[in-house]
Amino acid sequence: MRIDFDGTAMAPASFLEEVFGGLARDAGENDEAIGRVRARIEVVCNERPVVCTQALRYFDEAKRSK
Question: A Pfam family matched by this chain, by name (predicted)?
Fold first, then answer.
């Protein structure tokens, strides 16, 4: 899955947490399944690299909180 944030005005933290944290939570309890989901995510943020960092941080935080 490729998510391209280039050309967007902003990506609020609540949106990033819901999307990326939600993906991790919906992937299930199995670390292997969560890893497969994470491996399929490509986030493009050439204009605002911090968005990629935040998005993937929300994914990882949701994964750890399981």
Answer: DUF4325
